[in-house]
Amino acid sequence: MNNNEALKTNMNTEILDIRNYYPISKLEITKTEINKPKFPVIDAHNHLGTTFGGNWIHKPLEDLITVMDQAGIVSMVDLDGFEGESVFEEHLKKIKEKAPDRFRIYTGPDYSKWEEEKDNFGEYAAKKLQQQIRQGAQGLKIWKNLGAHVRDHRGARVRLCDPRLDPLWHMAAEYHLPVTIHFADPVAFYDPLDEKNERWEELHAHPEWHFPSPPFPSFQQLYDDFLSLLQRNPDTLFIGAHVGCYAENLSVVEKALREFPNYYIDISERIAELGRQPYTAREFMIKNADRIVFGLDRPANISEYRCYYRFLESKDEYFDYSEEEIYRQGRWKIYGIFLPDDVLEKIYRKNAEKILVPN
Question: Which H or E element spans position 180?
Answer without folding.
Answer: strand 179-181
